[in-house]
Task: inverse folding
């Protein structure tokens, strides 16, 4: 199908309009976090621009929004020298450090104004963006360079271009308003948000790769990735904090610099303030610490910069850092301690996780005595031996992370290298590592550790919420062989719970056995087990422990299928239907299909059902626009895939069928439609094209045929 070619000047004009609109919406979305239009509407504008540019390639410019992800993977990065060295910052770790620095600044300023711009110290990598004159009086992004050693960095322009909050060009009027030339440089911090970091690690886990250590490392790795498509998918962000003209800082001062960068359309951290006394500096630090956890990206301190350019000039720099700025680092949330041993835990899926047993160390308010080592590759990557000293960090979350092995004259290397066990530490059956995966697993279906972990998982608050089902109870239930699967929980009664025991130690006497649970605790546990029968399909799905089916996925699946039978049918007969659920791809659908393929799992679902566990969910409310109508799809539609079209029809209450019959109300035909189209004509069934289908979905009616 060819579209009528709009006349030439029209196309050029439309291209300009679309670019301006897209740039405006990118700024609203990525910088101001205040989108005006839906993602679909944005995509529609982008698609129109792509189409027009494809028809008129001579009109494509490097600053067009279509050119963010351009070109093929690079072979390597060119070196590029900085217009002026990218220095580091001196650090302050206490109020005294800060007071000392403030005193020195005031002395050296010798009467020139001293006020500081307080900014957050974002934990990423600094980069320099060079803008150069474009033909229309605008400035255009010409290069993006990493800090490197401060003198020379790497030219990562194609990667910087993929960051949506970085303007590819800046209009002439904006430059004029600020009396800025068309050539200048912007410096700032490239960061990865915590959400993007988590998404990356989920992906890495699904691909069997070890997790990235922290957002900063992940951002660094991403910026040095050779394929810009991958970089674009990682969603980096860039916060601007310096503006340089002719290789020198903008002479209006730091506060005006940040405001100017803001006006130019850059992402500038909104948490900033002009402060002039130590009290104000301390208050800013406290404020920053209090919002730290909610920012969504990591910060490791606060930066104070002398605001006045004249004062900055007078203070100058050492070879390493400017004297007019300082980084106040938050109290260290890391500690160095010794690895006393490595134990291996078995999870509910049989996954073996090595855990470092540490000499207890106090970090950020808690004592840390264990830290996960993830898998054998992680240990190998660290080069860790038992007896080594390691650096442990506590980030925004509570789980401590092992960062690196510390090795110097005070911290000698350990002697004993760790070899991963060949048998399951709990049931002693052989462990396996599937090719391409990082984890070793115990595949013994009856491994007691797996059952113990499954029971604990089942009882968790986010799952079936059975509060009394803690470690001691589970351990006893297993020892007394009262449960062999989660379904057996529903057979427990007061007299069975009465048999659970605990050992009580007594001074100077032999330990004594007592009931583990008193009458109240037994009644409470039984009440919670009973209550959990109404937890609903999503929680039951989570409780079954199907691989990759976490809270969100379980909810989406439950909302789509409504009950366990429908899900099981789909999993057994047509697993591809599972992929109609948002966010479910072949990996998750495969795991669900595999789950239901096992007779033992089907039996488990059956016994849960028999025990009275509810397995329904409120189905996603569907529109009823197409209720009672049956559609058959044939041929290739111009923009929708077959699956998308089917999903849209079903979401609007319609049915889809594979073959045309008298019961068919509409046949939707695309290019190369075959026999179904002939059959439709034979039976005089209305044939729709994609546009008509979309109109029907939108308005419940088809526009009159021209
Ligand atoms: S100013 C010459 N401002 O911290 C001045 N740096 O420890 C150097 N950083 O290399 C940069 N947030 O990567 C400045 N608001 C901020 C910052 C910031 C994070 C990083 C930057 C720098 C490092 C120095």
Result:
């Amino acid at each position: 199908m060819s579209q009528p070619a709009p006349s030439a000047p029209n196309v050029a004009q439309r291209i300009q309009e679309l670019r301006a609109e897209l740039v405006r919406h990118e700024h609203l979305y990525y910088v101001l976090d205040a989108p005006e239009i839906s993602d679909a509407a944005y995509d529609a504008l982008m698609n129109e621009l792509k189409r027009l540019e494809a028809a008129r390639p001579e009109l494509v410019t490097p600053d067009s929004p279509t050119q963010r992800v351009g070109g093929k993977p690079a072979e390597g990065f060119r070196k590029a020298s900085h217009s002026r060295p990218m220095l580091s910052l001196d650090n302050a770790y206490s109020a005294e450090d800060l007071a000392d620095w403030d005193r020195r600044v005031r002395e050296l300023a010798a009467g020139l104004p001293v006020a500081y711009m307080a900014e957050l110290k974002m934990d990423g990598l600094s980069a320099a963006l060079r803008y150069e004159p474009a033909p229309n009086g605008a400035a255009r992004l010409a290069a993006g360079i990493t800090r490197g050693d401060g003198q020379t960095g790497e030219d990562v322009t194609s990667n910087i271009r993929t960051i949506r909050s970085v303007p590819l060009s800046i209009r002439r009027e904006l430059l004029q308003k600020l009396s800025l030339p068309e050539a200048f440089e912007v410096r700032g911090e490239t960061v990865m948000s915590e959400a993007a970091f988590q998404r990356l690690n989920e992906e890495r886990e699904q691909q069997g790769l070890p997790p990235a250590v922290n957002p900063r490392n992940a951002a660094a790795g991403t910026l040095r990735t050779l394929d810009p498509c991958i970089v674009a998918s990682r969603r980096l962000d860039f916060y601007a904090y310096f503006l340089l003209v002719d290789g020198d800082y903008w002479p209006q001062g730091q506060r005006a610099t940040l405001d100017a960068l803001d006006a130019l359309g850059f992402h500038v951290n909104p948490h900033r303030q002009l402060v002039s006394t130590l009290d104000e500096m301390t208050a800013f630090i406290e404020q920053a610490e209090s919002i730290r956890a909610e920012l969504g990206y990591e910060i490791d301190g606060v930066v104070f910069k002398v605001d006045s350019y004249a004062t900055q000039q007078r203070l100058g720099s050492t070879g390493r850092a400017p004297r007019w700025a300082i980084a106040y680092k938050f109290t260290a949330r890391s500690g160095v301690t010794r690895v006393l041993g490595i134990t291996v835990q078995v999870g509910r899926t049989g996954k073996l996780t090595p855990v470092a047993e540490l000499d207890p160390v106090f970090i950020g308010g808690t004592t840390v005595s264990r830290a996960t080592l993830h898998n054998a590759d992680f240990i190998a990557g660290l080069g860790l031996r038992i007896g080594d000293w390691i650096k442990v960090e506590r980030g925004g979350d509570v789980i401590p992370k092992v960062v690196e092995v510390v090795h110097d004259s005070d911290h000698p290397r350990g002697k004993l290298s760790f070899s991963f066990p060949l048998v399951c530490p709990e049931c002693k059956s052989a462990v396996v590592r599937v090719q391409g995966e990082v984890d070793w697993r115990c595949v013994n279906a009856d491994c007691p550790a797996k059952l113990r972990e499954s029971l604990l998982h089942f009882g968790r608050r986010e799952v079936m919420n059975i509060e009394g089902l803690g470690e001691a109870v589970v351990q006893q239930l297993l020892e007394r062989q009262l449960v062999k699967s989660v379904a057996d929980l529903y057979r427990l009664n007061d007299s069975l719970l009465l048999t659970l025991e605990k050992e009580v130690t007594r001074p100077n006497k032999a330990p004594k056995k007592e009931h583990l649970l008193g009458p109240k605790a037994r009644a409470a546990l039984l009440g919670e087990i009973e209550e959990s029968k109404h937890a609903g399909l999503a929680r039951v799905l989570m409780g079954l422990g199907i691989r990759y089916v976490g809270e969100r996925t379980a909810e989406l699946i439950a909302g789509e299928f409504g009950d366990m039978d429908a899900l099981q049918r789909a999993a057994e007969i047509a697993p591809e239907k599972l992929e109609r659920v948002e966010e479910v791809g072949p990996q998750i659908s495969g795991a669900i299909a595999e789950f239901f393929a096992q007779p033992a799992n089907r039996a488990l679902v059956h016994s849960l059902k028999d025990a009275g566990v509810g397995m329904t969910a409120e189905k996603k409310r569907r529109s009823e626009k197409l209720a009672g109508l049956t559609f058959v799809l044939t041929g290739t539609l111009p923009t929708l895939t077959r699956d998308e079209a089917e999903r849209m029809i079903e979401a609007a209450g319609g049915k889809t069928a594979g073959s045309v019959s008298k019961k068919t109300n509409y046949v939707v035909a695309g290019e190369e439609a075959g026999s179904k189209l002939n059959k439709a004509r034979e039976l005089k069934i209305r044939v729709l094209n994609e546009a008509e289908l979309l109109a029907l979905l939108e308005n419940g009616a088809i526009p009159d045929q021209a």
Remarks:
- Residues 316 and 323 are 6 Å apart (CA to CA).
- The pocket of 2-(butylsulfanyl)adenosine is lined by residues 87-89, 119, 121-122, 126, 189, 241, 303, 322, 325, 327 (CB under 6 Å).
- The radius of gyration is 31 Å.
